[in-house]
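Methods — Computational structure assignment.
A single polypeptide chain was analysed. Its primary sequence is given first, followed by the predicted tertiary structure written as C-alpha cells.
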Amino acid sequence: MLDLKAIKVFLAVAELRSMTAAARRLGLSQSAVSQAIRQLEEYIGAVLVDRMHRPLLLTAAGFALRQRGAALVGEAESLYKAVREQAGGTAQMLRLGMVDSFAATIGPALIKELLSSAVHLHVSSGLAPGLGEALRERRLDMIVTTDAAENGATVERHRLLHERYVLLVSRPLARAHPGVSIAELAKLAPLVRFNSDSHIGATIEHYLGELGIAPPHRLEIDTADSLVAMVAAGVGWALITPLCLMQARADPAQVVPLPLPGVGCSRELTLVSRHGEYGDLPRTIAQRVAAIFASEGRSQLQRLAPWLGDTVTVL
C-alpha cells in the first residue's frame, strides 16, 4: 500500500517546487522530506522529481502521481471526517480559501464565528484562479471566489454577494472636473489598473473595451491598498469594487467614489465546496456572510458615500 503521509509530503513538494519550502509548511526537517520522497520513489520504482533543476520539476511519473494523489489524499481525509462525525466528534480541519478583498473585509468576522464549529481552520487568500485550482486538487475544502468557472456536478455553489464596480478619483480631481466622464478621464490622467492576470483586472478591461475606451497600459497594481493609495496621491484614476474599497480602508477625505454610467459592470462572490462533503455547513456560512455584511459591511460603505451601500446586494 502507498503511504498516504508520503504522498502528502510529495504533493507539498510538487506544489512548492522546493523540498525546503515543503518542509517548512509541513513542520518537518528537510532531510525527512527528502527521505519520504526517496522512499516513495523506491516503492513505486520510478523517479518522481527531477532534482537537477531549480526550482524542482516533476517527471512524467511525478506529474501522474500529483494528478491522482491529490484526489487519493482528499478522499482519505473525507473518510476520516465522516467517521469522526458519525462517532460524535468534530471536524478536525476546514481549509477555506477566499479572494483577498473578501478575506480582508467579511473574512475576520466569519472566521471568528467558524472557530466555534471546527477544531482547526486553515485559511488561504489569493486570486480566484489559484483558489479554484486548489479546490480541484483538494488542497482546499471550500472557496469564496469570483470565478464562475467552478461549476459541475462535483461542486455545490452558494451565492453570497453581488457588487457593482465604481469609478474612483482623487478629491482634487473630482473638484477640478465635476461630472467628468471615463472617456475624459482617460485623456486627463493614467488609468491605475489592477493586475491583468486577476479576475477583477480582466473584468475592467472587458468593460472599457465595450465602451470603446483604451487607456494606455502604464501602471498595473497587485493590491487594492496600493491602488487606492495611488489614486489618493493623484497618480491616476481607477475602477474598483466596494469590497476592495473597504479592504483598502479608503479615506473619503482623499478619494471620491462615483457611480459608473448606465448598467456599468459587476461581479458576484460565491461559496464553492465539493458536493455533500460538509452537510449544511456551506449554507450556514452563506447565511452568516449575509448577516455580517448587513450588520457591519453596509455601514462601512455608507461612510465613504451614502449611496455606496446600495452597490452591494446580499444574495
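Note: The two ends are 46 Å apart (CA to CA).
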